[in-house]
Amino acid sequence: MRKILPIVLLSFFMQSSSAQLDFLTAQKKHTRVQTTINEKEQVISKVLNDNGIKLSELNILIASYKNESEVDIFAKKNNDISYTKIATYNVCKKSGVLGPKRMQGDYQVPEGFYFIDRFNPKSSYYLSLGINYPNPSDKIKSNASNLGGDIFIHGDCVTIGCLPMTDNKMKEIYLYAINAKQNGQEQIPFYIFPFRMTDKNFNKFKKEYSNKNELVKFWTNIKQGYDMFDNEKKELTFSINEAGDYVFE
């Protein structure tokens, strides 16, 4: 048994390493991804190096702000706890209005706390990263029979409820994401806010939407998460209660 154990362990680690390697290898088989790497790897590597992070140790977190039409990329070393903002990108076209997505066909961009669950190098919209909408909160808070789905951040600058970027900027975002995935980040957080939820902004929109009590209540809930992340720059830990509200730890 003592002679077999080291071989078994070696086999396990080789399989584990191979499984991780296979993700990036599979992505590189696609022409768009190879083009993205050729054009953008040096660009994002410089941004990371300027922030003391190597591409091989990258983890990311993405935050979007609908009113400002902006997406922030935060990064950290995979063994660190807190993130640093490294880039801001403009969303190139808006869809819907402020407020969460609650049904298929409402053209709304979701609001809440999600993670990337799909990487599509052959997207109809150049490159795309899918989020796990509807999440458990969305399912509880919606009365619709069909909540919809297939919400992405993607290229091609067209949208009916997604977060569209120019192809040029989507290449950078996609490259950050696939390298974070390659480095073992199984769930890349993706937070979508109605606006940058500073106290000043929140009071402004609270007054503007004072006739929509449920919406203001929802925003009050997700502002707790906004404030925690804004103060600590750490990935949020939360549960969802029976009402569909986020309960932050």
The coarse silhouette is: globular
Determine the mean pLDDT: 93
Q: Tell me the helix content.
A: 25-40%
CATH class membership: Mainly Beta
Over the alpha carbons, how many angstroms does the gyration radius reach?
19 Å
Please give the count of helices: 6
β-strand percent reads 15-25%
Distance between the termini: 45 Å
User: Helix and strand string, N-terminal first?
Assistant: HHEEEEEHEEHEHHEE
Structural class: alpha+beta
| Second CATH tier, the architecture | Beta Barrel
The main sheet comes to: 8 strands, mixed
Kindly report the CATH topology: L,D-transpeptidase catalytic domain-like
CATH superfamily: L,D-transpeptidase catalytic domain-like
* Number of DSSP strand runs: 10
Describe the protein in words.
With 249 residues, this protein is of the alpha+beta class. The chain has a single domain, classed as L,D-transpeptidase catalytic domain-like (Beta Barrel). Helix content is 39%, strand content 23%. The protein contains six helices and ten strands; from the N terminus they run H-H-E-E-E-E-E-H-E-E-H-E-H-H-E-E. Strands 3-2-1-8-4-5-6-7 form an eight-stranded mixed beta sheet, with helices on both faces. A hairpin with a 6-residue loop joins strand 2 (70-77) and strand 3. It is globular and about 50 Å long. The relative contact order is 0.15.
Short characterization:
It contains six helices and ten strands; from the N terminus they run H-H-E-E-E-E-E-H-E-E-H-E-H-H-E-E. Helix content is about 40%, strand content about 25%. The chain has one domain (about 20-245): L,D-transpeptidase catalytic domain-like.
